[in-house]
């Protein structure tokens, strides 16, 4: 299927060397400052230019163990490429993301993953979740000589990289290959083991010297409207599209509710399977969306219409099948944060839809409210060392990120910094 293939082709060796030669090798490179994992970008690019592809990959992996994933899915326009000084000359930035992907892919194709590090096994850390934050934390701990054991609730490890990020951005093989590379550092991963079901946090605290929570967030919150049972959650839709594309229902018209980065991923996937129209409905104004501007440009290029200031009132169901949505336009002069906005007498209309995807953000980890951990607006509260209010329990990734950017590379950096804090607590 078309949407299972990467949309951006890999660079050839000559293309990579040519692109690398555009780098100005700044003395105080802003691209490095803009990279959450502080990859020495000019250094790895210079190695590509001189043909030392393995050396380039080693520079990347030293800072970011998930360099292959981040080279594909990082919002580079907002980070390293957005800071590239060449743009000040009205020229396109150096394609840092594609060069990073080139180096890591070449490394995997030509070299064996790193051999197992010597684990001292004097200390043992439990990690809950095998997404980017969990894998990064485990790999960093292993490199520091500390044993790490990961517990993952799903059948496959890798978190959103495996289950949710669309294949046209990152094929599942890339995520699983990185997982295997991490395991070769001496890390054990137990799958289908869920916190709160198969074991408790207190049991982990008793059996291990420290615990790192990399539990991410949950599904989209319910809209509390009639017929919502017929909607698909955004994560469920993306997971089906990636792992079980044959299970997706046939639909002439597909509607996505929401306008975050996940909603845009849903729209881009839906565009490839809808027989007629894909639409996005958003209850706020464009400037209130948390989606990256470049991502919004992508759906507009795909001719996906976005309707702003729209409230979905109910699902329209006939003969036990979803046929559309009853919607209402919100008064553009009203306060969108007002509790009365749902009661406004805006114009109502019907929108045909055989598949509706709810992409209205992700719920906070509600189960954590039963634990003795302090929360901050529903997110796990941590200090600058990634420590929670529960002794010897740390957290990172989306479950702590109350504000700022939510991305794979930020989760990787959380895991790495938390690992250093955990190691320092043992000394």
UniProtKB/TrEMBL annotation:
EC code(s) of this entry: 1.3.1.1
Q: Describe the location of the FAD/NAD(P)-binding domain by residue ranges.
A: 123-415
Please indicate which superkingdom the organism of origin belongs to: Bacteria
Residue ranges annotated for the Dihydroprymidine dehydrogenase domain, each copy included: 6-111
- Which reactions fall under this protein's catalytic activity? 5,6-dihydrothymine + NAD(+) = thymine + NADH + H(+); 5,6-dihydrouracil + NAD(+) = uracil + NADH + H(+)
Q: Which InterPro entries match?
A: DPD_II, FAD/NAD-bd_sf, FAD/NAD-binding_dom, Helical_ferredxn
Q: Which Pfam families match?
A: Fer4_20 (PF14691), Pyr_redox_2 (PF07992)
**Which keywords, in A-to-Z order, does the entry hold?**
Oxidoreductase
Give the top-level enzyme category. oxidoreductase
Q: Does the keyword DNA-binding apply?
A: no
| Known partners and oligomeric status | Heterotetramer of 2 PreA and 2 PreT subunits.
Q: What does this protein do?
A: Involved in pyrimidine base degradation. Catalyzes physiologically the reduction of uracil to 5,6-dihydrouracil (DHU) by using NADH as a specific cosubstrate. It also catalyzes the reverse reaction and the reduction of thymine to 5,6-dihydrothymine (DHT).
Task: Please identify the protein, giving its name as recorded.
Answer: dihydrouracil dehydrogenase (NAD(+))
The opening ranks of the lineage are: Bacteria, Pseudomonadati, Verrucomicrobiota, Methylacidiphilae, Methylacidiphilales
């Amino acid at each position: 299927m078309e949407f299972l293939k990467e949309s951006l082709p890999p660079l050839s060796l000559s293309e990579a060397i040519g692109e690398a030669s555009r780098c100005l090798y700044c003395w105080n490179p802003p691209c490095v400052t803009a990279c959450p994992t502080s990859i020495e970008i000019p250094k790895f690019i210079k190695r590509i230019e001189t043909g030392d592809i393995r050396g380039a990959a080693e520079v990347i992996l030293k800072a970011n163990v998930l360099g292959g994933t981040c080279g594909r899915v990082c919002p580079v326009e907002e980070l390293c490429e957005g800071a590239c000084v060449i743009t000040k000359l009205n020229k396109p930035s150096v394609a840092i993301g594609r060069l990073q992907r080139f180096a890591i892919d070449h490394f995997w194709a030509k070299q064996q993953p790193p051999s197992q590090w010597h684990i001292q096994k004097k200390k043992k850390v439990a990690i809950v979740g095998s997404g980017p934050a969990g894998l990064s934390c485990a790999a960093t701990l292993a490199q520091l000589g500390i044993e790490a054991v990961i517990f993952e609730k799903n059948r496959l490890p890798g978190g959103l990289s495996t289950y949710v990020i669309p294949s046209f951005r990152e094929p599942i093989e890339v995520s699983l290959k990185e997982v295997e590379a991490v395991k070769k550092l001496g890390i054990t991963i137990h799958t289908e083991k869920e916190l709160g079901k198969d074991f408790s946090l207190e049991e982990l605290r008793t059996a291990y010297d420290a615990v790192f929570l990399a539990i991410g967030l949950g599904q989209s919150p319910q809209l509390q409207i009639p017929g919502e049972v017929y909607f698909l959650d955004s994560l469920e839709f993306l997971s089906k599209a990636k792992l079980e594309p044959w299970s997706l229902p046939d639909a002439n018209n597909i509607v996505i509710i929401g306008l975050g980065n996940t909603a845009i991923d849903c729209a881009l996937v839906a565009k490839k399977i809808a027989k007629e129209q894909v639409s996005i409905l958003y209850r706020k104004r464009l400037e209130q969306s948390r989606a990256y501007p470049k991502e919004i440009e992508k759906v507009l290029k795909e001719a996906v219409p976005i309707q702003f200031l729209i409230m979905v009132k109910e699902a329209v169901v006939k003969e036990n099948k979803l046929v559309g949505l009853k919607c209402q336009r919100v008064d553009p002069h009203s306060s969108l944060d007002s509790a009365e906005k749902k009661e406004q007498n805006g114009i109502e209309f019907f929108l045909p839809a055989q598949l509706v995807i709810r992409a209205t953000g992700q719920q906070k980890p509600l189960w954590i409210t039963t634990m003795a951990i302090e929360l901050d607006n529903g997110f796990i509260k941590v200090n600058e060392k990634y420590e929670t209010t529960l002794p010897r329990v740390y957290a990172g990734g989306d479950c702590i990120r109350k504000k700022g950017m939510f991305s794979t590379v930020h989760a990787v950096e959380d895991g790495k910094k938390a690992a250093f804090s955990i190691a320092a607590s043992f000394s």
